[in-house]
């Protein structure tokens, strides 16, 4: 579970509740089943109307991907692993990798190395691995767009909920004592819509995009390393090339950990 995300959600709730209390409003006004129905059910309907059934049914898995604190692969460790294999192949040839491939946990790296050992043409390996990356990017883009759609629909549904509430309030003008309370309650849907849209759904979409970017970067690093290894490049040359593909902090960390 990603604790940092949980903290962020509670910080958002704290901001709203604190704002209400400072304005002298009662927190109890937030308990509005009507508003929740308009926002949550309406948002679900917007997603159903925007995506096919199989993608809608995949939403629980998307929540798992958002909240799961999955330890991403360390780029510095990937570079170290590739450089070590390059050193091995320079001494004993590409076939020496055959015994090491089964020990690799990364399926993408394993696939690429198996093609190298099998003598597959470099252009074909690049095409296969690039297609794999592009397909993954498209899946991730589609997943993030589910939350982006929810984020776009939620605030607008909040306005719709406010309109519905005002219709109910203005339709009963005889009870002037409750008129103010009814109008205030009408805007609770707007509050819900904006909160869910800009504190929950859009940030969830951004988080998925960020996780996708990190995974794509690692796969591109692996692909370039595998192709350089197949070409028989000097391990130091491969290391220098791969270090240009990572963040400065990862580059610095790698160099400090591998000082000769």
What would you note in describing this structure?
With 260 residues, this protein is mainly α. Helices cover 79% and strands 0% of the residues. It contains 12 helices and no strands. The chain has helices at residues 3-22, 33-50, 53-56, 59-67, 75-92, 98-101, 107-117, 122-170, 176-186, 188-230, 235-243, 248-257. Helix 8 runs antiparallel to helix 9. The radius of gyration is 26 Å and the shape is elongated. The mean pLDDT is 87.
Observed structural traits:
260 residues; mainly alpha; 12 helices
Give the overall silhouette.
elongated
Unreliably modeled segments: none
Order of helices and strands: HHHHHHHHHHHH
* Rg computed from alpha carbons, rounded to a whole number of angstroms: 26 Å
Class by SSE composition: mainly alpha
Number of strand segments = 0
The proportion of residues in beta strands is under 5%
How much helix is in the residues? over 70%
Mean pLDDT: 87
Q: Give the count of helical stretches.
A: 12
Distance between the termini: 38 Å
Largest sheet: none
Question: How would you briefly describe this protein structure?
Answer:
The protein has 260 residues and is mainly alpha-helical. The chain has helices at residues 3-22, 33-50, 53-56, 59-67, 75-92, 98-101, 107-117, 122-170, 176-186, 188-230, 235-243, 248-257.
How does the SSE layout of this entry go?
Blueprint: H1 3-22, H2 33-50, H3 53-56, H4 59-67, H5 75-92, H6 98-101, H7 107-117, H8 122-170, H9 176-186, H10 188-230, H11 235-243, H12 248-257
Helix pairs in contact: 2-8, 2-10, 5-10, 5-11, 5-12, 7-10, 8-9, 8-10, 10-11
């Amino acid at each position: 579970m990603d604790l940092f995300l949980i903290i962020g959600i509670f910080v958002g709730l704290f901001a709203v509740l604190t704002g209400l209390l400072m304005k002298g409003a009662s927190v109890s006004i937030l308990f509005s089943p009507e508003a929740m129905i308009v926002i949550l059910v309406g948002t679900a309907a917007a997603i159903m109307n925007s995506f096919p059934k199989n993608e809608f049914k995949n939403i629980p898995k998307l929540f798992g991907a958002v909240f799961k604190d999955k330890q991403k692969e360390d780029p510095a460790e990937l570079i170290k692993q590739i450089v070590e294999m390059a050193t091995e192949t320079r001494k004993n040839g590409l076939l020496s990798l055959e015994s090491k491939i089964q020990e690799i946990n990364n399926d993408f790296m394993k696939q690429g190395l198996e093609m190298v050992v099998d003598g597959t043409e470099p252009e074909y390996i690049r095409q296969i691995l690039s297609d794999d990356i592009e397909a993954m990017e498209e899946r991730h883009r589609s997943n993030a767009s589910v939350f982006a759609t929810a984020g776009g629909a939620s605030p607008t549904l909040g306005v719709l909920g406010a309109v519905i509430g005002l219709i109910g309030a203005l339709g009963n003008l005889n009870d002037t004592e409750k008129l103010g309370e009814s109008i205030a309650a009408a805007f609770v849907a707007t509050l819900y819509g904006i909160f869910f849209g800009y504190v929950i759904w859009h940030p969830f979409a951004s988080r998925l995009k960020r996780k996708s970017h990190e995974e794509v970067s690692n796969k591109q690093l692996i692909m370039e390393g595998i192709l350089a290894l197949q070409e028989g490049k000097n391990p130091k040359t491969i290391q220098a090339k791969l270090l240009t593909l990572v963040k400065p902090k990862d580059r610095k960390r790698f160099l400090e950990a591998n000082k000769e």
